[in-house]
Structure formats: structure tokens, C-alpha cells
Write a structure and sequence with these properties.
CATH topology: Nuclear Transport Factor 2, Chain: A
Strand content: 35-45%
Oligomer: single chain
Bound molecules: zinc ion
Number of helices: 4
Structural class: alpha+beta
Strand order of the largest sheet: 1-2-3-4
CATH architecture: Roll
Number of strands: 4
Distance between the termini: 19 Å
Largest sheet: 4 strands, antiparallel
Helix content: 10-25%
Length: 124
């Protein structure tokens, strides 16, 4: 989470893409991410809560508040984001990017579980 915030502050779109669930990466609007990143002055990140999920070591939630300023003034955004671990790396599950999967499909995080038994519950 902190590294993704830093990537926003530095305009490192490549990092933001590659730290998102691989099955969602191709659907990200990289131009929009870059434009938002560069047109904002990043004022700070506060990690409010980190929540591990009992019985699901591959999943975690991070609640954070990010603050930034743009031509419309200062903004504060609080969000509870889901992350999934695969091969030792944590990936952001982007709730705004739809993935077309059936509930019985293999989970896109490569856990070896069915989607419904793994990451499905972390999509809105
Ligand atoms: Zn999964």
C-alpha cells in the first residue's frame, strides 16, 4: 500500500499496473492513472488499519487515507482495499475493474482454488 502511494506520488504507472492483480492489469487505463498522478500534489498517506483474514493467509485488507491537492483544492480519500498474495507478492484487487469469470473458474490469483472459494468475495 505504501509503495503504491509512493508510485502515485512519483508517477510510476508501471509499478501501479504490476502491483494490481495480473488478471486486471490489461484493463487499467494507464493514461488516466498517469494524468491523475502528475496533475496532483500528493500530501500524505495514513494507513489506518491492516486486517489479516483468518483461514485465508493469501488475503488482507488495508484501510488507508490518502490526501492530495489539485486545481480543485485539497482532497482526502479513505478506502478499504483488498490485497491478495501470490508467490510472495501482494497484489491490489481493483474493485473498479471487472473480470469475467464464472464462480467455478480457477482463481486469477493462482492460488489453485476455485474463484468462488478464493478472491470472488473480494470483488464488490
Ligand atoms: Zn484468489
Amino acid at each position: 500500500m505504501r509503495s503504491r502511494y509512493s508510485a502515485y506520488a512519483l508517477g510510476l504507472v508501471n509499478y501501479l499496473v504490476h502491483s494490481t492483480l495480473p488478471a486486471q492489469q490489461a484493463s487499467l487505463d494507464q493514461q488516466a492513472i498517469l494524468a491523475w498522478s502528475l496533475s496532483s500534489t500528493w500530501l500524505g498517506l495514513e494507513v489506518n488499519q491492516t486486517q489479516l483474514i483468518k483461514g485465508e493467509p493469501q488475503h488482507a485488507y488495508v484501510t488507508f487515507t490518502a490526501r492530495w491537492r489539485d486545481e480543485n483544492g485539497e482532497h482526502s480519500h479513505r478506502e478499504r482495499s483488498a490485497f491478495v498474495r501470490n508467490n510472495g507478492n501482494w497484489y491490489f484487487i481493483d474493485p473498479t475493474v471487472e473480470i469475467k469469470l464464472e464462480r467455478n473458474d480457477p482463481c486469477p490469483c493462482n492460488s489453485g482454488l476455485k474463484f468462488k472459494k478464493c478472491c470472488a468475495g473480494y470483488f464488490p
